[in-house]
Amino acid sequence: MATLIVHTAGLLTTVQDRGRYGYQRYGMPVSGAMDTFSLELANLLVGNDPGKTCLEATITGPELEFTGATWLAISGADMDPHLNGQGIPMNTAIDARPGDRLGFRGLKSGCRSYIAFAGGIAVPPVMGSRSTYLRAGIGGFQGRALMPGDELPLGGSDHLSPFDQLSTDTVKRKPRVIKLPEGLIPEYKHEQTIRVISGPEAHYFEIAGLRSFLSAEYTVTARSDRMGYRLSGEPIKHKEDMTNIISAGISLGTVQVPGDGQPIILMADRQTSGGYARIANVITADLTLIAQMRPGDMIHFKETTMDMAQRHYIDRCNIFTGT
Question: Between 1.10.260.40, 2.60.40.2470, 2.40.100.10, 3.40.47.10, what CATH number should domain 191-321 receive?
C-alpha cells in the first residue's frame, strides 16, 4: 500500500472529509472540511467520490513524500505547489511516483488548500467519518494535526494509478487534464460580499443594528479558527435585554451576535448549540468564500432570500454534473 511520509507539516494540516453527521444531538460537532466545495472538486479530479478523505492545509502547505504511485490534485488556496521542485498546476490531476516529493512555496491566494489522492487516505473512521476534530482529539490521523515523521496510508485506486507495475523511466509524466467549466473556481479576494438569509432572531436587533450589519464593513480577526470567524466592525445593536436566547441548534454559517455587538460566523468545528442571538445565516454557495478568507480580510454582508439561496446552490451543483 502506498503511503505519504510527512517531512514538514505546514502551519495546520489535518485529514478531513465532509464531516461527522448524525451525532449533533449527542453534542458531537460535524467538523469536516472548512471548504467542502474545494474538497469535492479535488476528489472528483482524481476520480474519487466527492466526499473522500483529503488533506486540508492552512496558510502554509506540508512537504510530502510518496512511497507508491498515485494521482493527486490540489484545489482551494493556491500555495504555489511543486513536485520535485517543478511547479504543478492547481485543479489538475497529476501522477506521483515512488520517491516523488510534493511541496509548496508560499501562499498566493485563499487560505486553505485541499490535497486529494486517488483512493483517499486510509485512516480509520470514527462515527462514520475520517475527519479530524482537534478539540476532542478524534478522527483523522491520531486525532491531531500532522507532524514531521508521520506516515499516512493511501487507499487503493486501480483505475487511476497505472504506474505501480511500470518503471518510472519508461512512463512519460503527463497531467490528467480535465477541462473545468468556466466560472467554476471562485475568486479568493481580500474583500468579499457575502450573501446571507435572515436569522431566527433577526427581530432581536434594533433597526439601526440591522442596518449596521448590512452596510458596515467587518474585518476577519486573528481570533478566527475552524470553530468560528470572529469579526470586528461597527457594533450591531440588540434590543434591550435581547442579547441571549435559550440555547438552540447551530448550523454551518450561522451568524451569532454576542453582547459586544461583534458578529461571529460559525464554521466546521462549531458547537452544536448556542445562546447568542442569530441574526443571519451565510448561504451555502458562499461558505467556500468565507473558508478561504484569512485575518485582515474584509466582509460586506448582503441579504438574499431562501429561494435565491437554494437557486445559487443548485446552480453550483449543476456545474459539477454538467446540467
Answer: 2.40.100.10
